[in-house]
From TrEMBL:
PANTHER family: L-2,4-DIAMINOBUTYRIC ACID ACETYLTRANSFERASE, N-ACETYLTRANSFERASE. The keyword Transferase applies. PROSITE patterns: GNAT. It comes from Methanolobus vulcani. The lineage of its organism: Archaea, Methanobacteriati, Methanobacteriota, Stenosarchaea group, Methanomicrobia. This is GNAT family N-acetyltransferase. Keywords: Transferase.
């Protein structure tokens, strides 16, 4: 008999132990995340959160976590994770946990619920499709290997943001994401609060590119590894083939690294990027700048999550990135699912 109850601080270690047994993916392609030492740290990025723990004989066997976000009109709910210990699967525990989130959503007058699914995670996809969630959108995940230093010499001034540049930068971000699902225009105050609340981000890690004194491109450079480390427990065949080919070419020239099965990846992410289309080179130079920070500190991989139609993908091509995919699933509760044809990816949601 499963009992579902609120999270208690003393659950921390057992949940982290369960997480280590929970790769997301299938037999050929899967990754595992480690959010230690504090399972709740990723939730502290949000204004509110709930974790419900499933227990059997007084031992935790799984959990679900969510946050409620305030939209323009109505709130909506994000399911951040659902994990069930391998010894207790296929007994309907995950279904019960998702139902808990749905009950909370009804109670709070939530418009819709959404979650992200890592592409190879067929089990979770089956589960939520069974519960009526619809695949609404693909999200591109890009990983870049900082395998060489890039030259920055095209005349843009690349620098960390100055307090007096925040206003102009926010105008650029607000116009870049205008009309995208889940984007709510920032004010100077809200942007400052939002970036500073995210561990490893903060305004001190926000970079701008100026042209003739004006901000034409910008991006945050978030050290997401302070909240999560990723290990590929099963590497896709394509990566193995690429690693072999790159290994041969490496005798002649420098080539990107590919994550190796079992390797712990400490990801940094380019977030809240925006640029004027005629200054895509400025965006490229910001990425060069981030690349060089990684290269100099011996950190191997950085990346981004983005709408697949975002023109930043064209800019990133030169870095020979690896492409992965997430699916956004959503279900209406007391309102409608928004138009996801363009989406702003809330970086906090990418801690999977
Ligand atoms: C995905 C996960 C949470 C499912 O937990 P669970 O308690 O076994 O799920 P349930 O017993 O409630 O399954 C309900 C339905 O989901 C689908 N499902 C669950 N596991 C499945 C699997 N391995 N393969 C195919 N379908 C699966 C089935 O339709 C199942 O119904 P059925 O058993 O009647 O066929 C669990 O496998 C897990 O923890 N995986 C690793 C972590 C993860 O990927 N979490 C999700 C992203 S954060």
């Amino acid at each position: 008999m499963v009992n579902i109850r609120p999270f208690r601080e003393e659950d921390n270690d057992s949940l982290l132990d369960i997480e280590k047994l929970c790769p997301q993916g299938n037999e050929e392609y899967a990754m595992i995340t480690d959010k230690g030492p504090d399972i709740t740290a990723r939730y502290e990025l949000y204004d509110n959160w709930e974790i419900r723990v499933a227990e059997k004989n007084a031992a935790a066997v799984g959990w679900i976590g969510w946050t409620i976000k305030q939209g323009m009109d109505e709130p909506y709910l994000y399911i951040a994770e659902v994990m069930v210990h391998p010894d207790h699967r296929r007994q309907g525990i995950a279904v019960e946990l998702v139902r808990e989130a749905e009950k909370a959503a009804h109670k709070a007058g939530i418009s819709y619920i959404y979650c992200y699914v890592y592409e190879p995670n067929e089990a979770f996809m089956n589960l939520i499709e069974k519960l009526g969630y619809i695949k609404e959108k693909n999200i591109q995940e890009i990983s870049i290997s900082a395998y060489k230093k890039e030259k920055i010499d095209s005349g843009y001034e690349i620098e960390r943001i100055n307090p007096e540049d925040i206003h102009e930068t926010i105008k650029l971000i607000n116009s870049y994401y205008y009309g995208n699902a889940q984007f709510y225009p920032f004010t100077t105050e809200s942007f400052r609060d939002y970036t500073n609340k995210i561990l490893g981000y903060g305004l001190e890690n926000f970079i701008v590119a100026k042209w003739k004194g004006h901000i034409v491109a910008c991006a945050g450079f978030w050290d997401a590894s302070v909240l999560m480390e990723v290990t590929y427990t099963k590497e896709p065949m394509m990566w193995k083939l690429m690693a072999n080919a790159y290994g041969i070419l490496r005798h002649f020239t420098r080539m990107p690294d590919i994550p190796v099965e079992g390797e712990v990846c400490k990801m940094h992410l380019i977030v809240d990027f925006a640029f004027e289309q005629e200054h895509s080179l400025a965006m490229e130079e910001i990425i060069d700048y981030c690349n060089n920070l990684m290269f100099e500190t011996n950190c191997k991989f950085f990346g981004a999550y983005t709408d697949p139609d975002d023109s930043v993908l064209g800019v990133m091509k030169k870095f020979k990135p690896i492409h992965e995919k997430l699916f956004l699933y959503a279900k209406p509760i007391s309102g409608k699912v928004p138009d996801f044809s363009r989406i702003y990816v809330d970086c906090r949601d990418t801690i999977l």
